[in-house]
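request received
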Amino acid sequence: MKFRVTDLEELERRISALAEFVVEKIEDDVYFNHPCRNFAETDEALRIRRDSDGVTLTYKGSKIDPETKTRDEVKLKIDDFEKMKEILTKLGFRVSGRVVKKRRIYRDDEVTICIDWLEGLGNFVEIEIESEDVEGAKKKIFEYTEMLGLEREKSIRKSYLEMILDVADNNGEG
Amino acid sequence: MKFRVTDLEELERRISALAEFVVEKIEDDVYFNHPCRNFAETDEALRIRRDSDGVTLTYKGSKIDPETKTRDEVKLKIDDFEKMKEILTKLGFRVSGRVVKKRRIYRDDEVTICIDWLEGLGNFVEIEIESEDVEGAKKKIFEYTEMLGLEREKSIRKSYLEMILDVADNNGEG
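response:
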């Protein structure tokens, strides 16, 4: 689940009491659209991420839960950003956008809490669980939402990519 | 360039005089077809290879020289065969075939000579140069062809995948 952050200091105080700080890093993501499917319609995503851990290729399936953004996700480490991009381009995939964010990661067991800052969009908090047990994970995320004082009904379903493309559209750049 | 091997012993004797033996390994290749392009028609290929060096993703463009099988090729190391296969499958790519071969690799500077053995197909020799200088590489390959006593007009343009699919077709399995 993702929320806009209103009081960053208070939120970080609450997170620090619940979870352990892991790392702060820059994540530089490039998203691709499919040669013969419109990911904006199918609600899928294909991404190459570069950060301090290396390069990762990630596929995200369409959301299977409306509130929590639960999705199928497959990711693997790859050796080279440019070569992966070149292969995808030769296969007809097209860059649909780029998302660069500063991310502070906290962890409590299987729960990952990220405080993200994106230029032009501001601060957000994401609560994530990687699990096969969708219902259990959902319940746990709701518990954390409450403990952090976040209002479930204010959760944001849009991806950062969609938010960035919205801003570009509104500025007449899209 | 690729040739069928008639006298393996004599050929290996000649290769050993020209190039240095590097390694013998099993290469296990899975090929994919595109979700909205027929690679058999566009003469492209997308492959995940597993061998003793790890896992590699390779894209091959269509042949740009009729005789030498010269192609654009982009490859990168990846972390996990099954996850790459899963991502490709979710993107609509379909397995078109599998090629397993025993390969003995020899090298002389930028020239790579491989003696391949494939079950049901027999022994082959491949001479390969990775280079931006297509004409120079072509000339060099012809020199090696001659030194190894191979007849240029007997070079095989078909890929191992095509040869395997041909055999399957003839056996009524295709």
